[in-house]
Amino acid sequence: MRVAIGQIEHETNTFSNVKTTVNHFHEWDKGQQIIERHLGVKDFLGGMIDQCNQLGVEIVPAFSAFAQPSGIITKETYEILKNELLKEVYVRLDHYLATVILDNMPPEFLDEFIKMNEEKKPKEEIEQFFKDKVPNYKEVLITYCITNSF
User: Fold this and answer.
1) pLDDT tens digit sequence for 133-147
2) How many Cα atoms within 13 Å fall on the side-chain side of residue 38?
């Protein structure tokens, strides 16, 4: 099992008239940086890491940002942080899916598959290629979806 972890941490002080912007957030960590900063630390992410390690669950660290207590977060800042978190989760899932596909792609079609992705062919064209070239494509995708339910 794989578990994606991440956080956007901020305590809002509604009495403060200073809006919280992107500049208030520090510790913008991605991927392995999250593990390095929070392993063994008694905080939210540290607890997630410790529990995953105890259970033998693979950790997929995505994105973490932290701000000291301050005023309400601006809409623009919220959108930037939300999009960064989602982007990092998708990047890690896409990388894993690509690995699953490459592990199951017959070797004679690998170069063609890689080229299609590099050329950013339409999603539908890549999916059709995958279906045509990987005899067990349904099984591969079902296994991917089951093992990557977050």
Assistant:
1) 888 777 776 665 555
2) 31
d(CA 63, CA 61): 7
**Domain extent listing, the chain:** 2-89, 105-150
Closest C-alpha to 32, from 5, 56, 11, 54: 5
d(CA 50, CA 61): 13
Contacts of 51 (CB under 8 A, 6+ apart): 57
Average of per-residue pLDDT values in the chain? 85
The neighbour count for residue 17, using CB atoms within 10 Å, is 8
Q: Could you tell me if 71 and 12 are in contact, meaning their C-beta atoms sit under 8 angstroms apart? A: yes
Q: Are 106 and 136 in contact (CB under 8 A)?
A: no
